[in-house]
Every structure is written in structure tokens, then in C-alpha cells.
Amino acid sequence: MSKQEKIKVSAGEDLLAFIPHIVGYWPENSVVCIGMAGKALRATMRLDLPEGGPADLDHFADVAAGQLGTDERADGSLVAIFGGPDWSDPEDFAHREVFDTLRAALAREGLPVRDAWYVGRDHWRSINCGNPVCCPWPGHSNSKITGSLVSAELVFRGSSVEDSPRQRVPAMTAVRDPEQSAKVARAAEPFLAPLGAHGTAENQLVVTLGAWERALAHWPEQPDTVMTGYLVASLGNTAVRDAVLVSLSATPEMSLAGVLGTGYLQPDVPEPVVPQHWYGSSQAAGYDIAILDESDAAIDAAAGLFSDALLGGSAGEHRPALAPNWTRMDQAEELVLHLAGSVDGEAKAPLLCVLGWIQWCRGRGTWAGAYFVESQKFVPEYRLAQLLDRLLQVGFVAAWAKDQQTAWPGYRRQVEAA
Asked: Which InterPro entries match (predicted)?
């Protein structure tokens, strides 16, 4: 089968086999909605099953339909509910109200549900078909999904189904070498107080953004122990952390101008703290960060872009959201994963939050939420993780993820591979 050839999905088990490969794991207590344009599958969205009353249910359905409805090419939808127990009693479908409310909301968005399935612990079945001949009770064995030709073809193409993000995030970010982690903590200690107090002084922020830029440019070469400690310590200052986030999505120069435009940039300090061998060696060469255009118009524009980037490209009504540099963001994820696995304790919280923010910008809410929860295990109610998690809960989707022109290309590659 050629790389360009599409996989044809015809039976229910084929479509259901497609879902865990696109999501990356077997969904649990979830609703998965897939947009359709004619017979072509479009965007896939996974949401936790709602647990509240009618008001929460209506909100859930409106959020789901609204998100799927941002795809202007979609003209229909498919729904799969991944619940717990099998649906054994024809007269008692535990998620009937969820499905009916969601179907009505999707219809209002011009995305009528063309087919729907319920997947239990061991069996799956059509939601709309009660004929015991083609849809026996409690349904078909889930082995028909995992053993389908579509599942086999996806595996052949290199796709895999792994544990859920809630299980994988702690394992992916666990300390790899406790002895090395202790060395990093000792290396970070001298930087914590000065970066916390004066991290947004202009000459200090220039060094910090330059250090991050060097680490990113040299990746996958791992930063040494002192540089690792410096990068970790820099995120202890929340304004610096925000500047780093924006720098990872665009350029350090734009980030520095944005900090000036938002009023956080402070006057120079007499002597900024720097990583080992930063000055007087080749380490700092080529990483001199400066504001390229200090005109009022340029600084105002940078301030707007800075704020937009922090909110996942959330531009105002009269200006488009500019796409981030996804190549930088993907590389930054690898670097920050390495840093997160190098430290323990409170220093881990901002790193996990940064990783969650990257996933949120990609539109991968489940991954983002897992990182935000993990972040707050190390610092309870870590402010940015808490705020972004609340945005997730109310259905706020990063603007970058809602527009195909700015969306993460990694998702498109996943869909194309499937």
C-alpha cells in the first residue's frame, strides 16, 4: 500500500479502531466526536463524559458541538461513547441523555450525527440499532476493534495505542537519575534568589532568553549541569516564565519587546547572573538578544502578540492569530521534557506547566490537563496551571488549534497517517 493511499473505513469496528490511534490511547469515560465532510473524516475531539446535572450537560454539548463546528468544511459527525460497563439492557442506556443532548447540539451546528456507537468494557454496539440480528446484546466483542484490518494497517504504518496521558505523564517526567537531579538542584540554588528578584531586568532577561535560545538551538545536545540548573531556576520567576513561553513560540527578540510593551521590563541590574562560562567563552556567542525595533508602534504590536501567544494565539476580533513556530515548539517540548526529568520538588511545577501549555496550544486538551494536574502535585494550586486547567474545563480552545492555517501540523500528520 502506497504512503499516499487512504485507509477505507466502512464498518463500525473499522471506525472505532481508528479512534484510539488518532487519540493515542484507548479512551475511558469519554465522548469522541469526529467531523465529516461528505465521506471523509475530519477533526477528532475527545471529551470526558459529563458528571453534572442538566445545566452541565447542556454546556458540555454546546462546547463539543461548538468546537467541532469550527471546521467550516464539516457537514456531519460521528459519535462514540466510551463508557464503563457493557450496555446489556435494551431498555436502559445509561448515557441516553448525554447522547440525545449532544446529538441535538451537533444538529444545531449543521453537523447531524450520521452514526453512533457505545463501547463498554468488553463489548461495543450501535446506539441507534436495536436489531438483535445485526446488533446482538450486549454487542460485538471489543476484539473485533483491536483485531480489525484497519487496526492492523495502522500498526503496520507505525501507529500505536499506549496508556492514557494521565498514566504516561508521571512516567515521562519522572526523575531519571536521583544523583544527577541533586547536582542540578545544587547548581540552581545560587540563581534562584537573583533571578526571582531581578529576572525581568533588561540585561538579566537578555541573558536568560539567550540561555534558553542556546539550549534550544543545540538540542538534542543536553545542557550541562549548571546550564540545566540555570534554566530551571529562571522559571521560578513567573514573568520570566511567561517570556520564555512566548520565546519558544516565536523569537526571543519578539518576547523581549513584548515584555517591554506589557510594562514588565525593568531597568538593568549592576551585574546579571549568568550560566557558567557564559561570558569570556564561545557559549554566549550568537545569542545576544535585543529589541529590534523600539518604535512605539512596534512595541505596542509586540505587546499584543505577547498576550496572544500566552493565550494560545487568542487574537482580537479584528486581527488574525499568527501561527507560532511549531518546529521550535516541538523541539522545546523535547528540551523541557529533559529538564523536567532532571529535577524534583517545587522546581518541577513550572516545567510541567510549560509542557501542558504546549499541548494546550496544540489543541490536545487531555494531554494538557494531565500536565496541569501533575504540575499542581508539586506546587498545589500552581497559578498558571490552575488557570489554564479552568480554561480547559469551560471549553476554551487555543485559537491556534481552531484554525487549520495555524494549527499544529503534528495533528494533521497523525490524521494523514491514519
From this structure: DUF4192
**SS3 call for 95:** coil
What are the φ and ψ backbone dihedral angles of 141, each rounded to 5 degrees? Answer: -65, 140
Q: Which pLDDT value is given to residue 10?
A: 62
Terminal Cα distance for the chain, rounded = 13
Give yes or no for a contact between 343 and 177, defined as CB atoms under 8 angstroms apart.
no
Closest CA to 361 of 395, 396, 399, 327: 399
H or E stretch at 33: strand 30-37
Closest CA to 35 of 6, 82, 75, 64: 75
Cell numbers at 223, concatenated: 545542557
Residue 194 near residue 273 (C-beta atoms within 8 A)? yes
Task: List the domain boundaries for the chain.
Answer: 12-162, 169-417
**Using CA atoms, how far apart are residues 59 and 52, in angstroms rounded to an integer?**
10
The CATH class of the 12-162 domain is alpha beta
Residue with cell 509586540: 302
Q: What share of the chain is helix, strand, coil (3-state, %, to 5)?
A: 50, 10, 40
Closest CA to 408 of 372, 374, 367: 367
The whole-angstrom separation of Cα 293 and Cα 399 is 27
Pairing of strands 113-119, 30-37: unpaired
CA-to-CA distance for 381 and 306, rounded, in angstroms?
24
Per the structure block, which three cell numbers stand in for 195?
533571578
H or E element that contains 363: none
- The pLDDT tens digits for 105-159 are 999 999 999 999 999 999 999 998 888 888 888 999 999 888 877 777 777 777 7
Nearest to 394 by CA among 12, 62, 102: 62
pLDDT at position 36 over 70: yes
Q: What angle separates helix 12-23 from helix 149-156, to the nearest 10 degrees?
A: 30
**What is the rounded distance in angstroms from the CA atom of residue 167 to the CA atom of residue 170?**
6
- Inter-CA distances, 171 with 68, 161, 251, 369, Å: 31, 16, 31, 15
Residues 6 or more apart whose Cβ sits within 8 Å of residue 232:
184, 188, 339, 342, 343, 347, 351
Q: What is the pLDDT of residues 361-413, one digit of tens each?
A: 998 888 999 999 999 999 999 999 999 999 888 878 888 988 878 989 876 55
Containing H/E element for 34?
strand 30-37
